[in-house]
């Protein structure tokens, strides 16, 4: 049986914090993504995004939106 990881906004914020990016708890996905984009390049961010986009990971809608915005060219 396969179990999917669920990533909520608190998990996502914690993972970003571990990379040195602090996103306020009340930040919208748009604002959080703008903070991440402004901080680039960030070591470990591509790997984090890759792991979040893996098949076995379920993202809450806020996290999915933030990831989509971070990936915009």
Question: How does this model look, in words?
Answer:
53% of the residues lie in helices and 8% in strands. The mean pLDDT is 90. It has one domain. The chain has helices at residues 9-18, 29-39, 45-52, 61-70; strands at residues 5-7, 57-59. The chain is built from four helices and two strands, in the order βαααβα. The protein is mainly α and 73 residues long. The chain starts with a strand and ends with a helix. It is globular and about 30 Å long. The protein has a two-stranded parallel sheet. Helix 2 runs parallel beside helix 4.
Descriptive labels:
73 residues, mainly alpha, 4 helices
Unreliable residue stretches: none
Helical proportion? 40-55%
Strand order of the largest sheet: 1-2
User: Can you tell me the number of structural domains?
Assistant: 1
The proportion of residues in beta strands is 5-15%
Q: List the quaternary state of the chains.
A: single chain
Topology:
Blueprint (H helix, E strand, L loop, with lengths): L4 E3 L1 H10 L10 H11 L5 H8 L4 E3 L1 H10 L3
Parallel strand pairs: 1-2
Brief summary of the model shown:
This protein is mainly α. It contains four helices and two strands. It has one domain (5-70).
């Amino acid at each position: 049986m396969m179990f999917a990881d669920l990533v909520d906004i608190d998990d996502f914020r914690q993972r970003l914090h571990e990379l040195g990016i602090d996103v306020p708890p009340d930040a919208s996905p748009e604002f959080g993504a703008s903070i991440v984009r402004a901080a680039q390049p960030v070591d470990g961010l591509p790997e984090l995004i890759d792991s979040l986009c893996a098949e076995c990971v379920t993202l809450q809608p806020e996290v999915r939106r933030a990831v989509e915005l971070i990936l915009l060219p």
